């Protein structure tokens, strides 16, 4: 038995023989009992080894003991953030609630409800309302008993997302995002909405780049979201209908679309909250004073790589379990921490240059090989791969199967479009197009790398590694077979990160100022001995690029030599024609000139040309200086 001081002046009594411990809190006079969990059940990578104190859980509700005295064991993302030092740890992980926690809470609540008279009345109300959903699937009062709404985070096509705090009595236990989807009496709609939860339940471990789902339940609630009166109080009783509640990890940094437009490119400054506008104004004034007024906007190379790598990791995990996301777009990519421009731009550590991104909203996802429903519904058009777009305006249904099934490659195309968006803060399509025009534009879209590099320079964005354009080109290829797999993109980006340094941005800037093929030296960096050869990746774009450069260099050299050689050739033929002596010198000259014309673009062929000209002079000298 050991005695260890714990937080708030409490003590831990540890008994290794019974694999249990008791926390004694003399101030509140409470005793809490924890039992050690079976090490075989530790399939969660984020958990510490079985000997750690964090492997003790409450046998009743499954809550883990707080191992680090107010802090839980940091997972991948917390770890990244703590090094940047910019934010405190995520609110939802303040208490490490295990997967079963909310289910146990729900069971407990249902049990209490069944013996509570008022709640029974509620229950009757539900069952008498004639909805198709069996009444025992509803958990009346669960939301209002255990959650408090803090704000509306956003509205999607299916429902609204709220920032909520989970509370028991007066104790706040963490902040979560809660998606509320009105179901009404529509069974098909219900089945569709529940897909999101089913999809994520296929994941057996906690993923660093996929949103974590905590709980899902059905409850009667207001159909029209959070309604507030002028004095800020909630308006009740707008008509209750069955709603699906999906509780998930709260992502403090919001979505990638807003972050890129608002925080990175300073677009729509008028929509920003007043405090933010004031701060921006102060920053701009400071920049002006420091003569930094013309500072370039956009993300730097490491930030772009960090974003793409997080998304491709998430995709890789989804694809590994056979799931196709189908609606990958910036507003479905969520930032675990707020993007603080100054702090992240100046981060020395590569891992700290952008907040961790998780992929959310699996509402459109499907299993690979599963037939898509032929309703014409796709994800968001601009991010949809051309091969899965159903022609037409989307209104009429065709009897003919004029669409392709979704594949993993369709998700990779969406990743390419996300890459385009984070680089340029816009999409390659005009904004005012009708649906059918947009579909045509998407089908005809061809990524032209050269034009995009020009565009990037013209917009005076922060210099970036030109390999980013190679990645975009292959991901946005209309040819499905040419698109790399998520795993390949992840590997390739890992490699790029390994070989990139903080100084790279300066190097790219200098290179951009030089007009001559700037990417060549980067290719040589990637080909260095300590790197994995690019040929190991299916995304071996730089090699192809190098070959193309070599080929064009060769062609232009040949053209130049032909231009020089043609007049010399005619001159030789003319002289030979009038020469009476057909010496070996004449023939040697012809041979050398001919050889240099058909020769490859090497320095040797220049030497041969010069030799040819010398011989030519010798012959002419021989002819004209010949004694009669
Ligand atoms: N877990 C979360 N944490 C923080 N904010 C979130 C979370 N989930 C969603 N949001 C915010 O709520 C918004 C709406 O999310 P939702 O998934 O319902 O719709 P969407 O993806 O924006 O649109 P659509 O439904 O058309 O695909 C998001 O854009 C995001 O800003």
UniProtKB/TrEMBL annotation:
<protein>
    <recommendedName>
        <fullName>Protein kinase domain-containing protein</fullName>
    </recommendedName>
</protein>
<feature type="transmembrane region" description="Helical">
    <location>
        <begin position="584"/>
        <end position="601"/>
    </location>
</feature>
<dbReference type="GO" id="GO:0005634">
    <property type="term" value="C:nucleus"/>
</dbReference>
<keyword id="KW-0067">ATP-binding</keyword>
<keyword id="KW-0547">Nucleotide-binding</keyword>
<dbReference type="InterPro" id="IPR008271">
    <property type="entry name" value="Ser/Thr_kinase_AS"/>
</dbReference>
<dbReference type="GO" id="GO:0004672">
    <property type="term" value="F:protein kinase activity"/>
</dbReference>
<keyword id="KW-0808">Transferase</keyword>
<dbReference type="GO" id="GO:0005737">
    <property type="term" value="C:cytoplasm"/>
</dbReference>
<keyword id="KW-0418">Kinase</keyword>
<keyword id="KW-0472">Membrane</keyword>
<dbReference type="GO" id="GO:0005524">
    <property type="term" value="F:ATP binding"/>
</dbReference>
<feature type="transmembrane region" description="Helical">
    <location>
        <begin position="606"/>
        <end position="625"/>
    </location>
</feature>
<dbReference type="InterPro" id="IPR000719">
    <property type="entry name" value="Prot_kinase_dom"/>
</dbReference>
<dbReference type="Pfam" id="PF00069">
    <property type="entry name" value="Pkinase"/>
</dbReference>
<keyword id="KW-0812">Transmembrane</keyword>
<feature type="region of interest" description="Disordered">
    <location>
        <begin position="72"/>
        <end position="93"/>
    </location>
</feature>
<feature type="transmembrane region" description="Helical">
    <location>
        <begin position="561"/>
        <end position="578"/>
    </location>
</feature>
<keyword id="KW-1133">Transmembrane helix</keyword>
<feature type="domain" description="Protein kinase">
    <location>
        <begin position="147"/>
        <end position="493"/>
    </location>
</feature>
<comment type="similarity">
    <text>Belongs to the protein kinase superfamily. Ser/Thr protein kinase family. GCN2 subfamily.</text>
</comment>
<dbReference type="InterPro" id="IPR050339">
    <property type="entry name" value="CC_SR_Kinase"/>
</dbReference>
<dbReference type="InterPro" id="IPR011009">
    <property type="entry name" value="Kinase-like_dom_sf"/>
</dbReference>
């Amino acid at each position: 038995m050991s005695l260890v001081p714990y937080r708030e002046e409490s003590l831990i009594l540890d008994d290794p023989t019974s694999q249990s411990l008791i926390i004694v809190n003399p101030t509140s006079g409470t005793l809490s009992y924890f039992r050690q969990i079976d090490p075989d059940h530790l399939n969660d990578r984020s958990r510490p080894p079985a000997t750690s104190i964090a492997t003790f859980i409450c046998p009743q509700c499954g809550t883990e003991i707080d191992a680090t005295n107010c802090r839980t064991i940091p997972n991948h993302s917390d770890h990244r953030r703590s090094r940047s030092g910019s934010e405190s740890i995520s609110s939802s992980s303040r208490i490490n609630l295990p997967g079963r926690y909310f289910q146990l809470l729900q069971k407990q609540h249902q049990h209490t409800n069944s013996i509570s008279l008022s709640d029974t009345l509620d229950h009757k109300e539900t069952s008498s309302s004639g909805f198709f959903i069996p009444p025992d699937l509803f958990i009346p009062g669960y939301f209002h008993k255990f959650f408090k709404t803090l704000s509306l985070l956003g509205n999607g096509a299916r429902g609204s997302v709220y920032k909520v705090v989970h509370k028991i009595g007066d104790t706040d236990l963490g902040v979560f995002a809660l998606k509320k989807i009105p179901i009404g009496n529509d069974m098909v709609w219900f089945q569709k909405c529940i897909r999101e939860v089913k999809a994520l339940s296929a994941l057996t471990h906690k993923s660093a780049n996929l949103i974590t789902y905590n709980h899902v339940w059905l409850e009667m609630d207001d159909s029209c979201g959070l309604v507030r009166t002028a004095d800020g109080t909630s308006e009740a009783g707008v008509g209750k209908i069955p709603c699906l509640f999906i509780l998930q990890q709260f992502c403090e940094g919001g979505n990638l679309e807003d972050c890129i437009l608002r925080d990175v490119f300073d677009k729509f400054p008028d929509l920003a909250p007043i405090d933010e506008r004031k701060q921006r104004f102060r920053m701009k004034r400071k920049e002006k004073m420091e003569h930094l007024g013309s500072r370039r906007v956009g993300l730097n190379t490491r930030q772009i790589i960090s974003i793409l790598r997080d998304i491709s990791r998430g995709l890789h995990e989804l694809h590994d379990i056979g799931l196709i996301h189908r609606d990958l777009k910036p507003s479905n990519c969520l930032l675990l921490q707020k993007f603080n421009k100054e702090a992240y731009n100046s981060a020395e550590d590569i891992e700290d240059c952008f907040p961790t991104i998780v992929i959310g909203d699996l509402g459109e996802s499907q299993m690979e090989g599963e037939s898509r429903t032929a309703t014409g519904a796709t994800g968001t058009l601009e991010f949809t791969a051309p091969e899965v777009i159903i022609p037409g305006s989307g209104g009429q249904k065709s009897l003919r199967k004029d669409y392709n099934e979704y594949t993993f490659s369709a998700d990779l195309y969406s990743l390419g479009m996300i890459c385009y968006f984070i680089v340029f803060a816009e999409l390659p399509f005009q904004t005012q197009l009708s649906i059918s025009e947009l579909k045509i534009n998407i089908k005809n879209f061809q990524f032209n790398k050269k034009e995009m590099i020009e565009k990037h320079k013209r917009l005076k964005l922060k210099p970036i590694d030109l390999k980013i354009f190679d990645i975009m080109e292959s991901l946005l290829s209309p040819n499905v077979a040419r698109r790399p797999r998520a795993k390949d993109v992840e590997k390739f980006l890992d490699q790029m990160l390994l070989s990139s340094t903080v100084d790279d941005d300066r190097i790219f800037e200098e290179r951009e100022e030089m007009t001559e093929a700037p990417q060549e030296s980067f290719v040589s960096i990637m080909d260095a001995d300590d790197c994995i050869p690019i040929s190991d990746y299916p995304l071996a774009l730089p090699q192809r690029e190098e070959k193309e450069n070599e080929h064009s260099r060769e062609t232009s050299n040949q053209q130049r030599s032909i231009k020089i050689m043609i007049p010399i050739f005619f001159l030789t033929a003319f002289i030979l024609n009038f020469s009476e002596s057909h010496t070996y010198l004449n023939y040697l000259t012809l041979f050398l000139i001919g050889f240099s014309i058909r020769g490859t673009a090497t320095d040797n062929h220049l030497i041969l040309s010069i030799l040819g000209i010398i011989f030519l002079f010798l012959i002419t000298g021989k002819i004209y200086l010949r004694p009669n």
